[in-house]
Amino acid sequence: MLRTLRHLMFGALSVGLLAACGSDDHNPAQTAPPPPAGPKSIVATAQATPDLSSLVAAVQFASNNGDLVTLLDSPGTLTVFAPSNTAFDNLAKALTGNTNARAADILIPANKELVRTVLQYHVLTSTVKAADIPFGKAITPAAGGIFKIDNVGGKPVITDGRNQKANITATDIVATNGVVHLVDKVLLPADKSIVQTAVASAPQFTNLVAALGFASNNNDLVTLLSGTGPFTVFAPTNAAFDALAKELTGNTNAVAADILVPANKDLVRAVLQYHVVTSRVLAADIPVGKAISPAAGGIFKIDIVSGAPVINDGRNRKANITATDVFNTNGVIHVIDKVLRPADKTIVQTALAAAPEFTSLVAALQFASNNNDLVTTLSGAGPFTVFAPTNAAFDALAKELTGNANATAAAILVPANKELVRNILLYHVLSSRVLAAEVPTAATAIQPLLAGKTFSIIANSAGVTITDGRARTAKVIAADVLTSNGVIHAIDKVILPAP
Fold first, then answer.
1. Does residue 176 contact residue 40 with C-beta atoms inside 8 Å?
2. I need a surface site. Which of 165, 244, 327, 399 has the fewest CB within 10 A?
3. Which of 414, 417, 473, 423 is nearest to 453 (CA)?
4. In which residue ranges of the chain is pLDDT below 50?
5. Residue 36 gets which letter from DSSP?
6. CA proximity to 211, closest of 274, 282, 301
7. What pTM was computed for the model?
8. How many CB atoms lie within 10 A of CB 306?
9. For 323-348, what is each residue's pLDDT tens digit?
């Protein structure tokens, strides 16, 4: 595009020079072409580009004592996303409702502040060339708010604050004070809060809006999500709320309205708060596999499954994120197909509920406790990480310790082994919550609850592997079982501390 622009400018200059000097073919000094034009300021570049005449007019119109013109003409490191004349004409049609409107029709005194804000929304205060575009990330223009640029089929596409798409049709037009990228639509900053967006998106979110109104105390949840934020809301669809009603009532004909009853107010309130994160997290910024802490407390996590984001909630239920990065004035919405629910079981309760996989672990905890202290500890606030051996792992340990090929876990739960079993169990517990994605990629010594003993852990392409104090290895075969007080990782071998 720059080459084309320079060619047009060069041609225009050449024609003008020839016209001024006549046609004297014998004066080589007069007929020699001028030197190639160097970069101009952003304003001069726009003025020299016929398809940006509406942009130039808008900048002049919206300036206060020429300040926008001066900004774009002065030394600096700016990036300008420059809409074409057609883009401005289309904006005029949209704003006026007149299919014959042109850009000049919106350059009227009543629109000056609007046009000024819109123009500032196209300007970045740093130079960002095409190769440096942070695809999928929030971009903050001079006007505030955000937009983002995605790579769509190898081409850059902008999503503005009102979730409209604009193609970048030419990149890296170099100016003396920055760079210009041409766009085929005028970008508009967001004009709706999260609540207003949900209301405007009816009928997709009518159940969510109804639930917010129902569960608010003096309208506090609605007020919160209409405030400055920023927030991230994982917004369940109407179908998701209907499915929750069926789940909670056991009635296959239930719909969302059936759970919006006074007895459920605290439950619905906690569930809604569990969908809100008190920061803005775009899809490109999702901390994949790591703990996400919503406003309600507890955690959930998001994994990428077959290239798509999937939420694992506190009850280890899965929800698909079906649409991402719906922008608002105070944050972002991601649409999900299931209502998330916070954890309701401790580590011990989860192990009991997972029977028969962990019956040997539960039996060992009860056997090795002093006045039930191990069970009480793992039912407390935590958070803890438990590497939970399966029943098969405990049976294998019994064979290993007794030398009896037919031994099962019960064979080692005898009074003489109580201290041994107790130490082994403490060796499987960390006093912090560590999800699989947070395990180091280099072998790292870990201190469990068993004082003075460590084991080594590593995460790589083969998964998470533990090397215990006796150089035996165990593999994590099921990771990140979330509970109300921590996380469980199922392992295929009972790990043993050094003698």
1. yes
2. 165
3. 423
4. 1-32, 35
5. P
6. 274
7. 0.87
8. 5
9. 999 999 999 999 999 999 999 999 99
